[in-house]
Hints:
The structure holds 3 protein chains of 3 kinds. Chain A is α+β, with helices and mostly antiparallel strands. Chain A has 16 helices and 21 strands. Helices cover 30% and strands 20% of the residues of chain A. Chain A starts with 6 loop residues before the first helix and ends with a strand. Chain B is mainly alpha-helical. Helix content of chain B is 78%, strand content 1%. A two-stranded antiparallel ribbon of chain B has the order 1-2. Chain B is globular and about 85 Å long. Chain C is mainly alpha-helical. Chains A and C meet through helix 6, helix 7, helix 9 and helix 11 of A and loops of C.
Amino acid sequence: xxxxxxxxxxxxxxxxxxxxxxIAGSPIGASAADVAQPVHGGTxxxxxxxxxxxxxxxxxxxxxxxxxxTKVTEGLLTYDFALHPGPQLATSWSVSPDGLQYTFHLRHGxxxxxxxxxxxxxVAYSIELLKRVHPRGKSxxxxxxxxxxxxxxxxxxxxxxxxxxxxxxxxASESPIVPKHVxxxxxxxxxxxxxxxxxxxxxxxxxxxxxxxxxxxxxxxYWDKPKPYLDKIIVKLIPDAPARSIAFETGSVDxxxxxxxxxxxxxxxxxxxxxxxxxxxxxxxxxxxxVEFNLGNQxxxxxxxxxxxxxxxxxxxIQKTIYxxxxxxxxxxxxxxxxxxxxxxTPYPFDVTKANALLDAAGLARNGDGVRFTVIVDPLxxxxxxxxxAAYLRSALAKIGIAxxxxxxxxxxxxxxxxSDHDFDIAVNGMSNLFDPTVGVQRLYWTQSIxxxxxxxxxxxxxxxxxDRLLEQAAVxxxxxxxxxxxxxxxxxxxxxxxxxxLVEQQQVTVYNKRVHNHTTxxxxxxxxxxxxxxSP
Amino acid sequence: xxxxxxxxxxLRLRRTGAQAIPTVIAVVVLNFALLQLVPGDAAxxxxxxSGSATAETMAMMRHHFGLDLTLWQQLLTYLKHLSxxxxxxxxxxxxxxxxxxxxxxxxxxxxxxxxLVFAIVAGIIIGVAMATWAGKWPxxxxxxxxxxxxxxxxxWLALMAIVLFSVKLxxxxxxxxxxxxxxxxxWDWLVDRVSHAVLPALALASFFVAIYARLTRVAMLEVQRQxxxxxxxxxxxxxxxxxxxxxxxxxxxxxTTVAGMHLGNLLxxxxxxxxxxxxxxxxxxxxxxxxxxDYNVLLGVLLLSSMLVIVANVLVDLLxxxxxxxxxxx
Amino acid sequence: MSSNHSPLEQADRATVQPGAxxxxxxxxxxxxxxxxxxxxxxxxxGRFGRFGPKPRDASPEQSETRRWPALRALARxxxxxxxxxxxxxxxxxxxxxxxxxxxxxxxxxxxxxxAPGQDPQYWLGTDSLGRDVLAELAHGSRASLAIGVTAALIxxxxxxxxxxxxxxxxxxxxxxxxxxTELFQTTPSFLFVIVIVSIGHPSMTVISLAIGVTxxxxxxxxxxxxxxxLVQSDFVMAARSLGFGHARIIWREILPNALxxxxxxxxxxxxxxxxxxxxxxxxGMGDPNVxxxxxxxxxxxxxxxxxxYLTALPGGALVLTVLALNLxxxxxxxxxxxxxxxxx
Lengths: 537, 330, 344
């Protein structure tokens, strides 16, 4: 065969053509895949809001805390997008067939930022500490009775009963490994390491100027050489959403997560050739926006009333108007990305006529003003999304004769009212599934989760023995197929009983400057340790 | 100042100090009682932001922050800290309250002082103009404009200013007190800080310009009718000289009184402006403290504001004594 | 300010009511030490020009006839007329908002963020949730005016009561009440309001109460000064010698004479209350079931770059309302204080 071009030129032309095709054809969200050609150097400007109360996610798991803690403090494992574990501080691991022993082989030659060696003693101490003071630690590690350290680089967790979800709990964002020599014998809440942390991670803490920024420098002795690629991370604390938009546009901020800009701005930012939008990286914290009923209310305890309310809500309007399209419609408490998600459609689709008929049949006639009865709606005062959802609810329920009064309050008042005093009718909030339904979903429907004074538990008062049985079984069931079946049955029952109405899964968004690469390489998203991140020159 | 005046100053300071202590205690008790009526506490907030909690961790947090003590015990503990000049510890920020406040105090002072200075200067200029053409149309127009400015909500004016100067024209930054993460020095640093402070100070000052303009106008008109001014005019002294030397000096008295009081009370209004501009000051700190149920921080800020009022009072007295030696310091 | 003292020196020499010397000196000294709000009110009520023999030392009969010329002066004053006209227009809008824009203004009626003029049905477009902006503007007047007036009334009632008692009785009652007033004055009022609103939850009633309870010190000093001066006058001594009780003297004799500055201050307080409510709503701490101009500004803040009219329009409405009140207060002050107006 005779080439039109000399062979070498042909090869170059081919390469040029294929590269051009790659660039032209790459979608906006391709950053998750590009791991090629990392370059050393540069400062990453990372925006986080609100200001984290502490820099280590030991006693506090607020969203901003997870963003900053993981750059310095690491965990035993990382995870890929299929939720399969991968190595971080543990190089290999195994779970015994009966699920009662977890063995971790730890990495050699890892040093804490102060020069001391990382050993299994740190792992054992950390897990015991997490069990004591971490907001979820007690339930996550509930079945762990003992942590054995046969040698300096092996840690064995001994369980009383199987915890099929436990293997997913070892990310730095969930279970950080902290230095024993710093925390031992101190009060973990007031230990100053929380404000000036040392860890094993790729970045070292430099300083925290409250209300302004947090500075991290590259760790030259990081165990995963030649990473990290960045020289410095500046975490900028900008509390105003439109100001963050402007910061992205002017280039003063390169990266931000958990929808750092107003939803109404995202369409405009997408047009900017320098910026990109990423929707992956939230699989561990994705959750469900829901309307929660107080089943003690005289009207809401009637199933027909709850069904009527469900039929009066058009989830598509919520998705389009309140979330500007950044949400997925659902009716299950388990998010669609989870392997346990049940796709059966809701037994109560949107139908205002049927809703009115149900209420009429229940004997709740309209009075002279067209009102059947009044309810008070309490939206969770974190971000303004629950408030906007409540505003929609008001509009929607007016059409079936239910008058809604929205009650605003700040977070501690809301928590007291809903979880301590049970003084509410309808609450609108969002609940994260966390890393497994047993951890994130069970707490909302389990009878034993009706706990006075503990937030984000079963506030509706829902108690169904069948549901309890299914949840408790799924919590210890090692067989995946059986577990999926149990969760499937659970979802169908609660969608029929309606202790709450699950509306949408909010899609969180990461905004990034296109010169930032590898920021989203796992379901942790921006909660990863950024050792892979590099900046184009 | 004469030695007798100095003695009076010292006496006044001592009396102020003596009066300050019961005021301080009263402020603490009143606000403490008020804050206890608000539902929820700091442990609720921290648990809420963590997205999950267990009864045990909440109990631990409450014990750690001393929130499980009785009200009396908490009050007494606070007062004891106060007697050692410590403002306590903040559960939200995990640092001593004094550190937090000292970090943000300069920011707020810069904002308040620059706003007041600008308002006084602008107010005096406008007031002089109004008084010079008293009764004619410039007076009426300026009066009306001042009134319009006084009627504007400060935060709205701030937003409109952001739209004009930041969004449309791009001349000034839209928030923050400095460009983060870059280490500027010398002239660059100054320009950066000033450019960030201009819009917030103007927004805060807008409300007060009208007041000072009015005060200047009234004071000037009042003084101009006095005998000694007529004497000076008859002596053939230049009008501007008269204006500046005699009239203005006396007009400054009510202005400084009022401005001094403003300084003490500005924290409340500053809170909204600081929110609009994300200015890291005490007003926003206080707002966050209420929402975070961080009583120690809130009490600290409220105490500080009382201190500011008292200090401002004393400063104004001293300034008056300097401006008009006839005023006796009592 | 020297005019504080020259009349003082004059007063020392002039023949005036017994006790007036001390009165004038006290008042002057008080003005020096008093809060900025009192200074400010003093300006509006022309205090700075009002030293020397005061016309109000007159008897009740004389003061009554004095009022008629004042009313006529009111009608001639351009500030009063324009302020009252503007206020009347706003009141009409507030009253007829329900008729002009029926239904709930918070109802989601159309696609969000329609521009003004884009849809003939919604003249000013829609906001971020798809609500009719014009309807929101009209209904918003209700919240602002209702809360403003209620809060100011609460403040005036409490403040007048405290000031009257302090000025009338003097002595330890005065000391205690003034200490309490100072206490309230040293606390930044906006923060105070937020704390009180957090105790309850934001509703129009709670907000009005909160603003009213924190704004009463404004008027207290003024009322106190008025009462202190009036309590020395002839007709009060006459009433006492006739055996009238304290309550009757305060209510029937002194208060009517102290009314003019109180009325002027009330209009200022309504304006302040409206501004404070708008700031609260702007921060998201207002009543979510009621449209308020402040909450419209807060909602529109996100869209400042693309739909800045969402912020500009309700702000403009606020400015007009507060301006109307200030014009009214200004005009009332001019008309009721001839000495000040003769200079302009």
